[in-house]
Amino acid sequence: MTVVCDFEVLRPEQGVAALLPDGSQVAVFLTADGSLHALDNIDPFSGAAVLSRGIVGDRGGVPVVVSPVYKQAFELATGKCLDEPSVSIAVHQVRVRDGVVEVT
Amino acid sequence: MTRTLVVIGNGMVGHRLVDALSGSSWRIVVFGEESRPAYDRVALSSYVDTWSSADLELAPLSGAEIRLGEKAVSVDRERRIVVGASGVEVSYDALVLATGSVPFVPPVPGRDLPGCHVYRTIDDLDGIRATVEAADRPGRHSGMVLGGGLLGLEAANALRGMGVSPHVVELAPRLMPIQVDDGGAGLLKRLVEKLDLTVHTGTSASSIERDGSRLIAKLANGLELDLDVVVFSAGIRPRTDLDLGLELGPRGGYLVDAACRTSDPHVYAIGECASVEGMTYGLVAPGYAMAEVVADQLNGGTKVFPGADLSTKLKLLGVDVASFGDAHAQTEGALEVVVNNAVAGTYSKLVVSDDAKTLLGGVLVGDASAYPSLRPLVGKEVPAALLQPGGNAADLEMPADAQVCSCHAVTKQTITDAIQSGVACDVAELKACTKAGTGCGSCVPMLKKLLTDCGVEQSKALCEHFTYSRAELFEIVRATRITTFTALIEKHGSGRGCDICKPAVASILASLNNGHILGETQVSLQDTNDKFLANLQRNGTYSVVPRIPGGEITPEKLIVIGEVARDFGLYTKITGGQRIDLFGATVDQLPEIWRRLVDAGFESGHAYGKALRTVKSCVGTTWCRYGVQDSVGLAIELELRYRGLRSPHKLKSAVSGCARECAEARGKDFGVIATENGWNLYVAGNGGFTPRHADLLVSDVDTETLIKIIDRFLMFYIRTADRLQRTSAWLEGLDGGLEHLREVVVDDKLGICDELEAAMASHVSDYADEWRGVLEDPEKLARFTSFVNAPGTPDPTITFRAERGQRVPVQLGIPEVVR
Description:
Chain B: Residues 537-598 form the Nitrite/Sulfite reductase ferredoxin-like domain. The complex is a heterodimer of chains A (104) and B (819). By secondary structure, chain A is mainly β.
């Protein structure tokens, strides 16, 4: 597990980006109901590492993050792209231990 | 073998014929006497708003050989040849005469004096303008319009637009004697006299004489008028000076049958020069119908001209006037139902049959909103409710064969078919597939109503989380003083919000001055551009644009920008808005870059926001030999006043120091052009996807008035526009259009101007630079980091290569050698 930050640094309905030891990037989101999600940070449509900067919300009740580049929505729980069903991004495990957020 | 059609006349009707034949096998040659392309003569009086003939031009047509400035001087019907003024000869298989009409000038002594004009062409208006400009009268100029009909009032309006006070002289006992009855004309006179017109009815001019630089007109009633200019607009006569040896109708005009064909089977006549079975028509709609008939005939069809409905609805000098059917109750036994409300300034008369069962016609003055519902009912049973006090025609059901768009002869059936088959779901699509609403536009409200009647819900809902439109949400936020998205969606929405409603609500909160846009409760609502106060580019980096008000910058500040760009390796480009864009900054670099810019006196340029961008300017009087006002000074004043103003979409502006318009102000949301006497304000212009020239809102105003009206205009737009709706689309969709806008923000018809001005005053006093706000707040600064677990580590996905001596992004996903 890689340390991301203290839990209290996170803000509801916002994301942060973390760097993994292999050089890849994870976007970690805290939603309004207090649950944590972690997805690949790279937006597959633009190739830019920006998903942590997307707007968090819901589509039909499903929690999503919307890419800030071309605005596709990705389901936070599964990484599935709701606008392009053939596309999905990797989901990472995320947990809070002793007030610290960690991802794999 | 290709057949050749020659059209003589390049007016609106000739143009329509060529359009209707596009795609056919005919080779088309058009002779046009005027040297300019076909233009909208119906809108002639609006020429004085801009003095740009391009604004009136009809859509250019391909596929026809149009000989501008080539008058057809003779026709040899034996050999089927048309001869042009230059000597050119064109032989034809079919010939269409569309020569239009000539103004009728009553035989008044002095009518040929310099300063006397007719009112028919753009050249005529240029001539009138030259006379007015040469007049040396101190104060307001004075003019006389001979003729108080539709055309006369149009001409009077054009004179007003040139700063002339017009006297309108009409022989009949009332204005618009053909369309309107005594009661309606009485109200019309009262309404137009409020607009600096003087109306003289029941009299005529008996002579015009020159006195120095003035013209003195003597009226038959003994009055003497001291004038600078005289305009004849006392009617038109079919133009038949091209003699083909063809029979003419009883009131002039080339005599044609119902197929618009003359006694020579190769020759047709259409529009005002045609006498269809003895009837001539001076309106454009019947002319268009004739053009369609001839196009059909030439393509082998059998269409005939069914006669025309002479109903009219127009706005003259801002006053609605409509007349339809038997407006003067000439049918035997006809009964009249009149409602004359002198206080409200409205007059309506319905003419019904002697048994009060059939609607025969009517007159509406002051408010013609019932016209689209009433006109199709002519000859049909009149709903009893209509004859009761308070009966509202706008609620009536229209028969299917009723004509909704009279410019393009589109029936209700055609429109409902297009809606019900799913071809058209909104007004724009209806316009595209049926042509309805693309002429005078007066039927657009009816198109909206038909869409609603057919069950097409024109949903105003912002997104799945709010059933309200942006304008409604704005009013909710303003009235309830809610300051957070969470409170708003809990009380007035559902779910958690999305990338549509969150930035829209953030923008509303910002427009209502709710503190820094990156404050604790607002930051999660912002799109990435607003969240990092910079513009996201394709590789995940951002660009930086410092504000350079009016495009004016000292060498010292220019050097600072250059140094910052050099030190951070930023790609540098001059923008279209007279400032400098620095590309390729990472989120970690943004605060460092801005610290240096803010220290040097720069502020955020809001290039990232739905907010005021720039106010461009030309150099104006300070340097330019032609400038008449200080355009740079005004541009800076406006940019500093409206900087940071959040709005439904971005706002652009420009100020030009003279009519040469070097700052391209008419392509802006609000543009200002200097005049000798002050400023002209143009609004709702746009470049972009759908370019639109801005419309003149007010002219010759001083700086104080100008700023007051811009304040009101911007605040009215911010309150009522949809999300991401630029001012141009907003004005196009505004019920009542430019006229309504003027009533609201200039005449203060709704009584809201004080409030709009106060809202702007509060914006101006509360303005603070957003970037300074970030640099002074450690919590906001902390968000500018690429990786929360490795601050300062550069994002490994961002790489650059060199191009023309600068750094540009390496295309992502495409391996490239990094230099």
